[in-house]
Design brief:
The complex is a heterodimer of chains A (207) and B (220). With 207 residues, chain A is an alpha/beta fold. Chain A has one domain (8-203). Chain A is built from six helices and seven strands; from the N terminus they run αββαβαβαβαββα. Chain A has helices at 8-25, 53-65, 75-80, 99-111, 138-145, 184-203, and strands at 29-31, 41-46, 68-74, 89-92, 115-119, 150-160, 168-178. Chain A is globular and about 45 Å long. Chain B has 220 residues and is an alpha/beta fold. Chain B has one domain. Chain B has helices spanning 22-39, 66-79, 89-94, 113-123, 152-159, 197-216, and strands at 4-7, 10-13, 42-45, 55-60, 82-88, 103-106, 129-133, 164-174, 182-190. In chain B, α4 (113-123) packs across α5. The N and C termini of chain B lie far apart (60 Å). Classes of the chains: A alpha/beta (207), B alpha/beta (220). The interface between A and B is medium-sized, with 27 and 28 residues.
Amino acid sequence: MIPERSNRLIKKLFAPYLAYRLRKAFKVLKHNEVKVLPGHSVLLLCNHFSWWDGFFAGHLTHIYLHRDFHIMMQEDHLKKRMFFNRVGGFSINRKSKEVVESLQYTAQLLDNPNNLVAVFPQGALESNHTEEINIERGIDYIVKKIKGDCQIIYYSAFIEYFESLKPSVYFHFLDCGTNHDFDFEKAKAMINAHHKKALKEQVNAEH
Amino acid sequence: MKIWRFENDKQYDVMVRPQNNFFIRNILHYYVNWIVGRHFHEVCFEPVEVDPNKSILLIANHFSFWDSLILYIVCYKLLKKKFYVMVREDTTIQLKYLKYGGAFSVNKNSRDMLQSLDYAAELLNDPQNLVLIFPQGKLYSNFVNDIHFEKGIAKVIEKAEGKFLLLFAATFVQYLKHKKPTATVYLKVEPNAGKSFEELKNAYQKHYDNAKLQQTEIVI
């Protein structure tokens, strides 16, 4: 397992550059508001459908959730792009025994209320049109291990074009409660119901 | 006889027709090829067999400005026909150069609509032509489940019956593991072209559902 080695300066410099790249590639990034609890760390669950997902999570953390960004990445992917290790990336290898170590490390990071960890609970790259969000059991393990206060937030992101030549991204946030009242099966059902509702809302999105 | 309509003290020709200009058409051709190649990682489509002695009526879903450009590329690379597309009147007025690329206008809210539909049927008489129509009539999300059909398409089919080949296209854009998006076009030849409106709608819906299912099942 590769722990994160983030550097405050690199993170500070990377954020505006990322904002610039996203502005160049996308027309607007729209999101709804949820109540972000003060004094809680954030476990951010995202749907994984594109190359850009990690950047979306990083950008949203910077402009909206205001925490110290960390992200769980697949080990072979992180090894190819060690730069992300310097902006909060740490590794997980689902095939090795170290997987428990990575999950414990995530829980440790979440003990600090200034931190945010973005995780893709699907564990694989899935279509943006998918109606089922498969949530791996690791999430349950992480949340149970957290000792401090942590809020769990999920979002579904969808990419749409409409009139513009550039795509727009629509984020549908959902507040899944805190680690103290977390129930894995209930959260899974809630996230899936929210995703289906978001897909329906997306069809009627204003443009 | 030319009919004119007056709106906001401006004078519009009732219908915008495609213009033939060798230079502008070529410039547009290279521009479309370049811009689609630059924006997309890949445009995927599977070859279909079409009768060279028949014109093609292409019916597609409409979710962005890109889909007519993508289908232009499909037409150029696979179908090898002259491209015509039915475009909303306000768009043709806004983007004047579209008519050189084969666009003709339609206005849903006026009586000139019949003229546009007649013109589309007329184009289908020539086996060299391809007419692209978006039956949804306006932009919808890429995530819709039910494709809305406007009634006008039935009139075109009725008028040009037997002279054309009906081709369905369903387009989806996804990013997946590449930085640039991939556009996938699912094509299908519909053999029974002289169908009623309801049957046509159901046949397209079936093709769309099938295509969407294939897109949904992608896991990498």
